[in-house]
Amino acid sequence: MKIYTIKNNNFQVSVKKTGAELCSFKSFKTNTEYIWNADPEIWAAHAPNLFPIIGCLKDDAFLYKG
Question: Where are the domains of the chain?
């Protein structure tokens, strides 16, 4: 699978060609990787967009079951 990587002095971002899936977001300053590493022993995917909210929330709030 083709992966595109861009970087500057602060960050490096890698995105898969298929679906534009974000597969890496790394800070050079802290040497921190912010995206799941897709460990095949646990779960071999990234899919950071699986969180139930994508986008802005009205009044910056979310009410669950309530």
Answer: 3-60
